[in-house]
Amino acid sequence: MTTTRRDLLRFAGGAAFGAFLTPAPWRLITDTALWSENWPGIPRPARGEIRTKFTHCSLCPAGCAVRARCVGQQPVALAGVFGGLCPFGVTAHHLPYHPARLRQGPVKEAAAAVAAAIAKCGPRERVAVLDLRPGRTASWTYRRAMAGVRNGTYIAPAQPPVSVNLANARTVLSLGAPLLDGWCSPANAFAARDRFRLIQAEPVESRTASLADTWLPIRTGSEQALALSLAGALDTRDAAERTGLAERQIVDLARELKENGPALVIDCRMSQNVVALNVDLGSWGRTIVPRPEAPVPAAWKTAAPPAELAAVPDGSIRVLLIDESAPGEYLPWNEIQKKLVSGNPLVVAFACSREGYGQHAQFVLPAAAFPEVTDDLPAAVDAVAPGFRLATPLIPAPDGLVNPVDFVAGVAGLAAPDALRQRADAIHASGKGKLVTYADGKSAAVKEVKADEFWKALNAGACWTGDAAQPGRAPGRDFSPAAEAAVPALTAVAAELAIADSPLMSKVYQESNLRLGPDRVAMHPRSARECGVEDGAKATLETSAGQRRVEVMIDSGICPGVVLVAARPGFEPGQAKVVRI
Amino acid sequence: MDKEFITRGVKRCSTRQFVLWILPWFALLAFGLFSAGLCLVKGLNQTNMDNRFAFGLWIFLDLTVIALGAGAFFTGFLLYILKLHELRAVINSAVVIGLVCYSGAVAVLAVGVGQPLRFWFTFWYPNVHSMLTEVTFCITCYLTVLMIEYLPVVLKNRKLRQVPSFLVFEFELHKLIYVLAGVGTFLSFFHQGSLGGLYGVLRGRPFAFREGLAIWPSTFFLFILSAAAVGPSFIVLTTWLAEKISRKKLVRPQVLQLLGRISGLLLAFYVLAKTVDTLVWINRTSPDSGFPAVQYYSWKPFGTWILFAEIVVFGLIPAMILLAPRLRARSGWLVSAAALACCGVGLNRFVQTVQTLALPTLSFDKFLSYYPSWQEVGTFLAVVAFGVLVYSFSFRYFQLFPEERELQMEVVQEQEKEQLEMAGRF
Amino acid sequence: MKRYGMSIDVDRCNGCGACMVACAVENNIPPAHQGANDRKGITWIRVYRVDNGEDFPDRRSAFVPVLCQQCGEHTPCASVCPQQAVDVDPATGIVGQMPERCLGCRYCMAACPYHARYFNWWDPAWPAGMEKTLNPDVALRMRGVVEKCNFCHGRWHAAKQRAAAAGKKDIDPADYVPACVDACPTGAIRFGDLNDSATAVAEDARKPESFRLLEKLHTDPKIYYRSKKDWVKEIASAPRPGARKESLRG
């Protein structure tokens, strides 16, 4: 028998028909659906072993304990150990990849320039370090370095002299402090929330005000007047006039603070009047205590004392080294500029981006961002006992960065490579307190732990808590009068906290208007009308920090005459102007 | 130059004039294709649609154009199933219009979805509960039917019919015409209805949600009615336009009047049904969802005027005009009423798509506004240009109006008679 | 048969947005494109600010996190998807979205009264190096598809794997916590099985001050909000023009 073409065709046709009775072509068809979902250019997440690492978030002095979920060595998610983190903390592991992040800088030139400038220092001129986050071990190193340099000065923003004990409070009066929105660790604030009644006094219905038990809408700049009046150092009628409250309200508030104790009064920086008011209310030792500090090696006590910027003579700083890498509070640039010599001062800023003092410095040197570097955290505002916590690196820092502590120490000829280890050893040597490790949640007395283990544990995620010191004698009730300043037509007030922004923070800025982004301001409809703008209008905002383009949002919860702006480096509340573009 | 392609016995303008006519439309089509291309290559961020306004100009365009193109199936139904033979004069034109409308709609749909390459998923993983599955199936099938119905029109071209196999094919195909008309009617019934059902089933949008019969909300039936009512009107409109632009008589006035009468009848019926439906919705359906109907019309700029315009100005008034024989006989009234009816259907589709999405559902939402981006408008214009071009080519080279030759001959005879009379006088 | 749901204490939400960013971190949602605004961004959970409509100083606000309500009955989005890209899992009650099946027709977005669905108007893009921080447990989506909250389904799968590895049939509730619940610093959001009357969520749902959004639509959502303030409870009902004095932020 011969095979004809027809036979072959029949065979092919039958095979094709038969193939459709098998799963093969159907699977292929459905598989093409998978091909259509992975186009080139869409990144693929890296795979690897899932690990857990611990550290402390160093974006703000609250220093919340952080559990990092890592793929291999790379952190992919952060969560709080003792509760939730703020949105900045949740996205902090993105900061090394921020597009505005500095990676390179003229390190050698800066070092040479600094050395030359120091050599040229006149008798009345000084070399200064401005440390934006004082209270760290690095701060001690700066102080020691400045002690070793002729005319060396260590400048830092004033730290609150007290700490607060939220757990003991039954009534809290907050004079504009965002207690429930980042003033202290969110986990601590909300763990204690149900035990106290919160009265929030500020001109804007902030997040804290909306959750408070009572919101007292006082006028801008009248917080001190209210505090003085509650202490009896200012006439109630005067205070009522200045704050815009009724006299009755102030009287009731004073009574509540006295009768529903222990009371706690706070403001953003725990100013002198507020501390005095707390003492007056009998809160010393109960809801406010002296600010604690972990032990330091005895040899460090010869370090230069911290100086406030205002105390430095004008025109006296020739070389200013600013550590902006761990920011807390930014001081206004024009205040700093007054202290620089008039001819060719040298300013070197150590920062992660150019947006802070980098705009004004001659040299901006790239510093490591969280979570690339080891640093310790100063005592949080709600820490009643001394503590020591390390922010440990989760990923290695890229090449080309500068460690500001090493740089400054080098300038002063101070060898301080392992200041943190020395500090840890000093703490261990004191034999006091306990060590809590996060991985297993265990607590051990320091006496039972060896020095090396102590250091290792701190680096692997742990915190040391010392014994709370006796509060001692209460400070005197020293009230400083609140100057009555003329209220400008429009005052700019900082909204909410704005720390370093991961690109993913666009979710709460651009993509939802939930938080006030840097390019937006909010004002009362009446103020907006007076400025000739409406909701969504483009305008220029002029404040003490300069000018910038913004979009206007309308919000009835803002006192007329106030414009809410996103807090940026160097912003100070004060007169503002909004002009339509 | 292209005289051999033009049907014998009818006059068409010179090739040069024709080229001058189609050139701007080609330019518009090119611009539109560029806009659509941008949307395909760069993504739908080129449009002004967003998460709240997921549908915009294009969906409104799709719905309107499909409603207007209903003339194709409905005329076929009237001619081949109900045997209204006068309509033979316009059936070819109606088929071309239908083809243009549906192919334009399908093209815009392809650009309007996020992943056009996945179009076959609807056929592979169909969801029997979804109105959109139904719409997709029926529209693609109906587009095929229209293309098959268009073939005879093409094949009857003077040059093409010289190919014997084409002639035979066309002849055989014509035997199937009743089947095609029936299938077309069936498919159209379902997809016109499902397009209405798309919004009527939206439980989450009480503005659009309607009760109905079994699984079909009342908008299912209202859309079929309005499409059937407006299809003939659109044919009246386009035929009148074609006559005006070509400066020729293409159909006997009685044909247009018949279409007008049918349109008026259905439109009147539709207005009645729509009124009843609106009353039920205002008094029962919407309040039961927790949304009192009056609040829909409190959001500026959509006040009750829009409801009034849809039902009375663009519904009742053209219906009454079209039902009055004396008004119908006057071309001005007939065409104006037809235009009003077409606008009415456009307004209804707009209300169903754009107004539904503009109205807030959550109490902390605001009324939203939307206007299309130039890329969206460009794509819309591409469809219009495409339609004009296909129609122009079909009009020039195919016999869209069978009565045209007769009417042309009548005109010539009239002219000859006049000339003879004139000659006789001298 | 589980019915996972949430209870959200509106009186405790401080509008910080930690849930929003934690969700974006967990689910590989890209940062906003330059042209994105609050109508074109992707925020699977979004915190809205609502207020009592009064002027200063009587204005009081509250913050309401809105995410996919995981509708149980007449799920609006599931019935309308032409490709069956939406799947209601009978074992968990979770309404899942399959971006690889999605055609991008956005009919489900028109159907959802809670505006909980988001379309990828752009291709996802991260600043250089930031792709290293992507979560390997969640697939990335490209432009042209719809996505929404799925109660961190990847974490549910991980919990199931852990249970299976330990030889257990049921997952350990502590193992399955969505990212937003984990991240919330105030403890306003609780998650659990509504069918288990002993869970905190089920208890919260029974409280008199609990309400669900747009209950009269009969979508049977699984997110229970609660507040002791009467004016806050009004957010659950249909919008009324003129009830709000100005446009709301958030």
Task: Describe the protein.
The complex is a heterotrimer of chains A (581), B (426) and C (250). By secondary structure, chain A is α/β, with parallel strands linked by helices. Chain A has four domains: 51-97; 107-159 and 294-465, Rossmann fold, CATH 3.40.50; 165-286, Dimethylsulfoxide Reductase, domain 2; 491-580, Barwin-like endoglucanases. Helices cover 27% and strands 22% of the residues of chain A. A seven-stranded mixed β-sheet of chain A has the order 26-21-25-22-24-23-27. In chain A, strands 12-5-4-13-14-15 form a six-stranded parallel β-sheet, with helices on one face. In chain A, strands 16-17-20-18-19 form a five-stranded antiparallel β-sheet. The model of chain A has no long low-confidence stretch (mean pLDDT 90). Chain B is mainly alpha-helical. Chain B has one domain (3-404). Chain B has helices at 15-42, 57-68, 70-81, 88-112, 121-124, 131-155, 164-175, 177-200, 218-246, 253-288, 305-323, 325-329, 331-358, 374-397, 403-425; strands spanning 212-213, 216-217. A two-stranded antiparallel sheet of chain B has the order 1-2. In chain B, helix 1 (15-42) packs antiparallel against helix 14 (374-397). The longest helix of chain B has 36 residues, at 253-288. The relative contact order of chain B is 0.16. The model of chain B has no long low-confidence stretch (mean pLDDT 91). By secondary structure, chain C is of the alpha+beta class. In chain C, the strands form four sheets. Chain C has a four-stranded mixed β-sheet, covered by helices on one side. A two-stranded antiparallel ribbon of chain C has the order 2-3. A two-stranded antiparallel sheet of chain C has the order 4-5. In chain C, a hairpin with a 6-residue loop joins strand 4 (86-88) and strand 5. Chain C has helices spanning 18-26, 76-80, 107-111, 153-165, 179-183, 200-206, 230-233; strands spanning 4-9, 46-51, 61-66, 86-88, 95-97, 117-119, 146-148, 189-193, 210-211, 223-226. Chain C is globular. Chain C contains seven helices and ten strands. The chains are: A alpha/beta (581), B mainly alpha (426), C alpha+beta (250). Chains B and C meet through helix 5 and helix 6 of B and strand 2, helix 2, helix 3 and strand 6 of C.
